[in-house]
Amino acid sequence: MILSVEDILMHPALGSVVRLQAATLLSIHEANPRMASIFATQQRWLMAHVALSLYFGRVGENAADGLVSSVFLDTIHEHGVASRNTAGAFLKELLQYGYVLPALLGMDRRVRPLRPAELSLQTVAAWLVVHLATLDGLDGGGRREKFLEQPQSLARIQPLISNGLVRSSAVREPAPTFSLFTWLNEGGIVMDWLISGLAEAAPGSTRIASAVGSFSELTDRLSLSRTHLQRKLRAAETLGSLGWTGERGKSPMWVSPAFLHEYHTAQAVKLAIIDSAFQRCLG
């Protein structure tokens, strides 16, 4: 059975499995900070998924052998993910760092396709494994093991995930506090860090303590500037979404139940899209 957004949000184990997921995603970031930072805003994350789905040849009638720049720019523009200029700059950055590479020329010598580097494919597969493990933690399924037995199925599953993400209004238009961070460079990592360090929330709690204790603890691990992070945290603080138990910036942080619900909802939407794609391919 495919888990719906409502199934996931109502599950009593959601808090614990999502904390574990956040901690595991942080470990992937720490293994390759440069790659993680390239995909560290929602816009870049969506562009990366679209690029990979085009490489796998499942998006658009003009899908060619490999990732073709013009098709990528058109697809990004059509879905309203970013402007063509932004998408072009993103693709150039991927080429610069070797995360995509020139592919062999096809029949049409005018088309110069690209392909993801092996490290890029491994990172996306690891990302998928983390989320499949989260889904298994909710219903005891064996998605993770089944995927690891058939890793080549990434070519069928990922395009369905990409399509679900770019077409989801909940993904494209997140709740206010979550949105503050998704468009911040490495903002998703900041949220994962806050959430992974949360204590169990007692019923009726208005503040849920996090193990994150200072600005320096955040900024020392990220390429994000201290000033930029402070600005976003102040905005979230104004919304009543987070704060500090003592001196601002130098004491343990807390998050509100409303912010935690925003985070859980965003994860539930993403996990439901992933489960639907998985079940269609390997269920």
Strand order of the largest sheet: 3-5-4
Distance between the termini: 9 Å
Rounded Rg: 19 Å
Q: Quick one: how many beta strands? A: 5
User: Helical percent range?
Assistant: 55-70%
Could you explain how this protein is built, in words?
The protein is mainly alpha-helical and 283 residues long. 62% of the residues lie in helices and 5% in strands. It is built from 15 helices and five strands. The chain has a three-stranded antiparallel β-sheet. The protein has a two-stranded antiparallel ribbon with strand order 1-2. Helix 2 (14-31) crosses helix 12 (187-196), helix 4 (42-55) crosses helix 5 (69-78) and helix 11 (176-182) packs across helix 12. The longest helix has 26 residues, at 257-282. The radius of gyration is 19 Å and the shape is globular.
Tell me briefly what this model is.
The chain has 283 residues and is mostly helical. 62% of the residues lie in helices and 5% in strands.
Q: Which structural traits does this protein have?
A:
283 residues; 3-stranded antiparallel sheet; two-stranded antiparallel ribbon; 15 helices; globular
How do the helices and strands line up, and which of them pair or pack?
Blueprint: H1 5-10, H2 14-31, H3 33-38, H4 42-55, H5 69-78, H6 84-96, E1 100-102, E2 114-116, H7 118-139, H8 143-149, H9 154-167, H10 169-172, H11 176-182, H12 187-196, E3 208-209, H13 215-219, H14 226-238, E4 242-244, E5 253-255, H15 257-282
Antiparallel strand pairs: 1-2, 3-5, 4-5
